[in-house]
Specification:
single chain; 238 residues; alpha/beta; two-stranded antiparallel sheet
């Protein structure tokens, strides 16, 4: 990833592995299945980052992408205080302790139930922002990737998030994770982004790259996207 970032001409890159500190059974199982154990391994990763800083002429930021649920807020806060990352990203990934990408679970629900779950998603998102635990909130309409949940978001939802961001230090991520697949959009999608731009909201760059080739492909597109919008990305002070 560092080699790809250097070749892409970046002056810095954040390494922000997924992390979950919930003790709920479903989340413990998910963490074990996916290997999301940064809460245990962050010291070892930090040592590796320090070694790589001597090998690459690029700024490397020691960061985390933390799963957020209001029920876990105290545990998240304690972990972030203990770990002392250079910055923290907060993400809402789960509804009813099921990942929002898992379409069959949500497709089996009725339309009113799916609409209510999207309401819950936005309630969690606003709680995440209001918690002031994070520097960045990631892919703020992640559920749009799931066709069973797509289409239930409203302008009211968007304005709730925009108002929360305006009163918070948290920046919104423009996330390029699915811009080259069938989804074909950044997060947030154009209607949501249009509402956010009516408010005093800051934006950060998120390639959401999980492999070097993804980073190499997305970096030029992200640069063009910010240029077309005339948005200056927020700068992190660490």
């Amino acid at each position: 990833m560092l080699k790809a970032a250097s070749e892409a001409g970046l002056s810095g890159i954040g390494i922000s592995d997924h992390c979950n500190v919930s003790e709920r059974d479903a989340m413990v199982e998910t963490r074990s299945n996916l290997g999301f154990n940064l809460d245990i391994t962050y010291d070892r990763r930090r040592s590796a980052i320090e070694r790589f800083r001597e090998q690459f002429d690029i700024e490397i930021y020691d960061a985390v992408e933390m799963d957020y649920d209001p029920r876990d807020e105290d545990a998240i806060g304690e972990f972030l205080d203990e770990a002392g990352f250079q910055y923290a990203i907060g993400s809402v990934h789960h509804l009813e302790d099921v990942h929002v990408h898992y379409e069959p679970y949500f497709a089996d629900k009725s339309e009113p139930e799916r609409a209510a779950l999207v309401d819950t998603y936005f309630e969690k998102l606003v709680a995440l922002i209001d918690s002031e635990l994070f520097d960045i909130v990631a892919h703020i309409d992640l559920f749009e990737r799931n066709s069973a949940l797509r289409g239930f978001a409203t302008e009211t939802h968007y304005r709730q998030v925009a108002e929360a961001l305006e009163r918070s230090k948290t920046s919104a991520e423009l996330n390029a994770g699915r811009v080259f697949d069938d989804f074909g959009h950044y997060h947030p999608t154009p209607p949501f982004l249009q509402v956010l731009r009516e408010y005093n909201v800051s934006f950060t760059v998120g390639t959401d790259s999980h492999a070097p080739g993804e980073l190499t492909k997305r970096v030029p597109h992200v640069a063009d996207f910010f240029g077309e919008l005339g948005i200056e990305p927020a700068r992190l002070s660490v």
